[in-house]
Amino acid sequence: MLNEPTVEPTHSENSKEVGNPMVRYIATVATILFSLSSHFSFAEIKPASQIPSITPDYTRYHLFLRNLASLSRRVQATASSAKSAELVSAMVTDKLALNPSDTQSLLIIAKDLDSQLQILDGRATAIIAKIRTEHKKGDLYPPPPKELTELQMTHISLVNESINKIKNTLSATSSTAIDSYLRKNSSSPDNKTGN
Description:
It is a single chain. This protein is an all-alpha fold. 67% of the residues lie in helices and 0% in strands. It has helices at residues 16-19, 21-37, 57-78, 81-96, 100-134, 146-169, 172-184. It is extended and about 70 Å long. Mean pLDDT is 75; it is low at 9-17, 37-51 and 188-195.
C-alpha cells in the first residue's frame, strides 16, 4: 500500500477548513499531482492523433464485417438482387479504395462470418434466456456457464479466421487499405463520424 502524503494545516486547529474532509482531499490530490509532475515533463504529452489505438483488431474487424454484411442484407431487401450487389460493391470499392475483385471477396468473407455468428448468437441467446427463466428475483445471477464461454471463444476464433482470410485472400494493397481505414476510424475517441 502506498504511503499517503500528509498535509500540514496552515490554519489553527479550530479553523473550519482544517477539519473539512474536502479541503484535506484537495490538498492531498494537489500534493500527489505536484510530486508526479516532477517525474513527467509536458513535452511527453502527445496529441490524440499520435496515440496508438487501444481497440483490438478483433473488435475492429468484427464490427466492420458484421456491419458490412448487415448493409448488404438491407440493400438486397430493398432493391433488385443484381442492382443491390452492384450498389454495395460500388460503395465499398469507393469508400475503401479497393479493386472490384477484392471487394467481392471481402463481401463474401463478411457474409460468411455473419451467417456463422448468427448461429452462435442464437445459441447464446437461448442459453441466456434459460438462465433468466430459472433465475429467482432477488438472487444473484450465477457465473456464465461453460457453454457460453465456449461460444464466446468460438466467436473470437471465427472473427480471427476472417481477419486471416482477408489478409491471405485479398491483395496486399487492399488488405492494408482496410486495416488502415479501420485503424484510422477507431483510433481517436473524438472521431464519431467514421470518415
